[in-house]
Amino acid sequence: MPFSVSWGVLVLAGLCYLVPSSLAEDPQEDAAQKTNTSHHDQGDWEDPACRKISYNIIDLAFDLYKELADLSQTSNILVAPTSVAMAFVMLSLGTKADTRTEILEGLNFNLTETPEAKIHECFQQVLQARPDTQLQLTTGSSLFVNKSVKLVDTFLEDIKKLYHSEASSINFRDTEEAKEQINNYVEKRTGRKIVDLVKHLKKNTSLALVDYISFHGKWKDKFKAERITIEGFHVDDKTIIQVPMINHLGRFEIHRDKELSSWVLAQHYVGNATAFFILPDPKKMWHLEEKLTYSHLENIQRAFDIR
């Protein structure tokens, strides 16, 4: 049930994931409980092998997020696990034997249960999906290889055929030129939404795997720009930074998750997407990051009756 709430400062713990709708389906639950998560008509991944891969990606999402959170307690984190997994699966096409196995098993894929060819087939289903025209989502991966490295033709053909990607020759010894080449590529592919992606490069670099994602959507319930004010955002107990905030009084969809010691705010986009803002109680960010699991996200979606 919506509540009337005025929020002054929001402390946000975000887990951004782009996955097919079947990721929200527990195989032990009734089909009527299936929910849609960041879903743009990507197909249901009804194939049992593809569904298994989807759960592998869920595990990767939480493992990756927690690793990144441990690296820095103050930086923003954006995680798109399907995109990350797809980039490394694509890279595995250019490897052999133990290296290929380590990459795929490092993504939580069980090669005994799921053949490598099936993994590529499942990711193709995502790439061939029809996007929601009301949302602008741009993702892609590309390889930049030092000029001294010669790539096998079959690898170049495979990444183009299976992942609509390409590999570019680059001179990493000239770090400024290489940085400009990569940044110009990403800027062009994202319609100038992402600029200056690469800040630093080392001269001994041989290969750079670049994965990018750009999302643009419109809130279903628009905020008024004139309500924007500069206020203090609490990064942690000791750090407060001044950022633009909107003070808005209205009816919002919120949910209390006692196990996470957090409030959850749902904000809908125009189209088939919803953002969940998980707002931990004071000094409970560490508790939230430690306890958060996919089951919590499922429960949150059910609480808002988002299916």
Automatic annotation (TrEMBL):
InterPro entries registered for this protein in UniProt: Serpin_dom, Serpin_fam, Serpin_sf, Serpin_sf_1, Serpin_sf_2
Domain Serpin, residue spans: 62-307
Annotated GO CC locations: extracellular space
Keyword Signal among UniProt keywords: yes
Residues spanning the signal sequence: 1-24
This protein's record includes keyword Membrane: no
Pfam (any one): Serpin
Coiled-coil regions listed: none
PANTHER family: ALPHA-1-ANTITRYPSIN-RELATED PROTEIN, SERINE PROTEASE INHIBITOR, SERPIN
Similarity comment: Belongs to the serpin family.
Protein name: Serpin family A member 2/pseudo
Organism: Macaca nemestrina (Pig-tailed macaque)
Gene, per the UniProt record: SERPINA2
